[in-house]
Write a structure and sequence with these properties.
By secondary structure, the protein is an alpha+beta fold. The chain has one domain: Dimeric alpha+beta barrel (Alpha-Beta Plaits, 2-Layer Sandwich), CATH 3.30.70.1060. The chain contains four helices and twelve strands. Strands 1, 2, 3, 4, 5, 6, 7, 8, 9, 10, 11 and 12 form a twelve-stranded antiparallel sheet that branches. The longest helix has 17 residues. The radius of gyration is 17 Å and the shape is globular. The two termini are about 30 Å apart. About 35% of the residues are buried.
Length: about 230
């Protein structure tokens, strides 16, 4: 099974390019990648400068900051292949962010494509209220998938991939504090809205990215959080 792991951390700990601190952090993530091997389907670091995008009659409505009001921000993600929740929890505990932040783990219903390469790439996370009527296996789910299929067709090459997630009740969060692995049930952020899926997009400018994100189907009252993917070369 594939799992989306979301890396939540304190934005004040973010390191700047060209510094020894960033070099040390990249080395730690390189060691994790080497240890995890083929269990890593894909993964990227994010620039800690998210915006929230909503569709509007006159164009996309863009506000600075993340959708959910939390003290932590999304610093990156992995899609991991694992045979069980225990196996992916063991992998997630080795991610460097687990030592001072938290790793939210969500089983993926389906995953398509990858992240491509180079700059001009964005992670779009879809936030909204969760309803039992819109879960896998329901007519509402099938209708939603059809809407996303139309978006993917319209986006064309700008859609680099993405996936839908299992219900939030399947989520759990992993922390690693001095070698002690702490596992708690539920998503990392305790909010009325949850992440239902993600897209990986390519757009030349923030304005183009926002216009594309505004076309992603979301539930009433929901929104898309958009963050630049860091180009690490």
């Amino acid at each position: 099974m594939r799992y989306l792991t979301l890396l939540w951390g304190d934005p004040s700990r973010s390191t700047q390019p060209g510094t020894p601190e960033l070099d040390a952090e990249l080395a730690a993530y390189g060691a994790f990648a080497e240890a995890a091997g083929q269990a890593i389907v894909t993964g990227e670091a994010l620039v800690p400068a998210p915006v929230t995008v909503r569709a509007g009659d006159a164009g996309p409505l863009v506000t600075a900051g993340p959708f959910a009001e939390t003290t932590e921000v999304l610093g990156g993600f992995y899609v991991l292949e694992a045979g069980s929740g225990d196996e992916v929890a063991d992998l997630a505990a080795r991610i460097p962010m687990a030592r001072h932040g938290a790793i939210e783990i969500r089983p993926v219903v389906m995953w398509q494509g990858g992240t491509g390469s180079g700059d001009g790439r964005w992670l779009a996370t879809i936030w909204g209220k969760e309803s039992a009527d819109g879960l896998p296996g329901t007519a509402e789910w099938d209708e939603g998938m059809a809407e996303h299929g139309r978006f993917a067709e319209e986006a064309g090459a700008a859609n680099l991939g993405g996936g839908a997630l299992q219900p939030s009740e399947t989520a759990f969060t992993v922390r690693n504090r001095d070698g002690e692995v702490l596992r708690t049930a539920g998503p990392f952020a305790e909010t009325a809205e949850v992440i239902g899926g993600v897209y990986l997009l390519r757009a030349a400018t923030p304005e183009d990215a926002a216009a594309l994100a505004a076309k992603i189907p979301v539930a009433p009252g929901g929104a898309v959080e958009l963050a630049p993917i860091m180009d690490l070369g």
